[in-house]
Design a protein that fits this description.
By secondary structure, the protein is α+β, with helices and mostly antiparallel strands. Strands 1, 2, 3, 4, 7, 10, 11, 12, 13 and 14 form a ten-stranded mixed β-sheet that branches. α1 runs parallel beside α7.
Length: 222
């Protein structure tokens, strides 16, 4: 196992960082070489691929490059510092958008386009993480990144809440998509909830809840 490594499909709970998941996997497995392939925000849940052992961590790029699928709710009329409900709410206003107008706006985000990453992200500018600058109230110009959205499906639209299924390339920020969609609709939008349902062929229904990992690992090791 130390040579080949193990690929874990973990169902990340809300309220912890992806690095905290990695730290817990290190504790449970006793392995030092552990990493993840694709960060999830602390509030987000769902599939987090964790690579355990040298052989697995060497395959980081292979897993990081896989397409990712999300189910998410965007809430219209709200603007926050982080483009989700975890940040400071700057604007909260009533808004009415008809579904036809919403569908038209969504059509602009299917395919490949340039996306500006949010300030609250792990991207670096002059060697410093953007979120570190944002925490100090600073905002800097960010280079847009080329991203691809393979599928963008409207699942439900009720009042200010827009439920979507999104399959996208690596490097796509769902929070940035909410920000940009809100701008297109001449209002604001934030991510109200976010679940990653798939990374490539790794599905949420097959994922191990982090709370169950220690019991399952001990069973396999017995």
């Amino acid at each position: 196992m130390k040579e080949d490594g193990i690929i874990l499909n973990i169902d990340k709970p809300a309220g912890i960082t992806s690095f905290q998941v990695v730290r817990e996997v290190r504790r449970i497995t006793g392995m030092k070489k552990v990493g993840h392939a694709g960060t999830l925000d602390p509030a987000a849940t769902g599939v987090l691929i964790v690579l355990v052992g040298r052989g697995a961590t060497k395959r980081f790029a292979e897993f990081a490059d896989l397409a990712k699928t999300y189910e998410t709710t965007f809430r219209l009329g709200i603007r926050s510092t982080t483009h989700d409900l975890d940040g400071e709410i700057l604007t909260d206003e009533p808004v009415e958008i008809d579904t036809a107008h919403l569908q038209q706006a969504l059509s602009h985000y299917r395919g490949t386009f340039e996306q500006v990453p949010p300030m609250y992200s792990a991207k670096k500018r002059n060697g410093r993480r953007l979120y570190k600058l944002a925490q100090k109230g600073k905002s800097v110009e960010r280079e847009p990144a080329r991203v691809t959205i393979h599928e963008l499906r409207l699942l439900d639209h009720r009042g200010r809440d827009v439920r979507l299924r999104i399959t996208c390339s690596k490097g796509t920020y769902i929070r940035a998509l909410a920000r940009d969609l809100g701008n297109d609709l001449e209002t604001h939008a934030v991510v109200a909830d976010l679940t990653r349902t798939a990374v490539g062929e790794y599905q949420l229904e097959d994922a191990t809840p982090l709370a169950d990992l220690e019991r399952e690992w001990n069973f396999l090791a017995a």
